[in-house]
Design goal:
By secondary structure, this protein is mainly alpha-helical. It has a domain of about 70 residues: Orthogonal Bundle (434 Repressor (Amino-terminal Domain)), CATH 1.10.260.40. About 40% of the residues lie in helices and about 0% in strands. It is built from 4 helices and no strands. α2 crosses α4. The protein is extended, with a radius of gyration of 21 Å.
Length: about 110
């Protein structure tokens, strides 16, 4: 599924549907997920209904499903190998962009 094409609300609904499908595949009850992860019945119900929940509750639900390791895929740093770079090189603390780097957006009718 391409989440880039969905609204935030639709993404939450899909996550709720995915939760329910995964829970059923693993033969877990909502109570099992609550006990294993420490989430509340309200948080699970809100997710299943497609309502917004906070990140802590989402983490607890993933833990209850036994899927917490998959959260690493959300923000993962890939090691790119480069001969020029060394491992001792520190990451920048800030990113500065020059004003001249602004991109000019194409608008229909500008090509005339």
């Amino acid at each position: 599924m391409n989440f880039n094409l969905l609204t935030d609300e639709n993404i939450i609904k899909v996550l709720g549907q995915n939760y329910e499908e995964l829970r059923l595949r693993k033969k877990l009850s909502d109570e099992d997920v609550m006990k294993k992860g420490g989430s509340t019945k309200d948080a699970i119900q809100r997710l299943k209904n497609g309502s917004n929940i906070n990140l802590v509750n989402f983490i607890k639900i993933l833990r209850g499903l036994g899927e917490l390791d998959n959260l690493e895929k959300v923000i993962k740093i890939e090691d790119d190998f480069s001969i020029r770079e060394t491992k001792n090189r520190p990451l920048p603390r800030r990113v500065f962009k020059r004003k001249s780097d602004k991109r000019i957006e194409f608008k229909w009718g500008d090509d005339e």
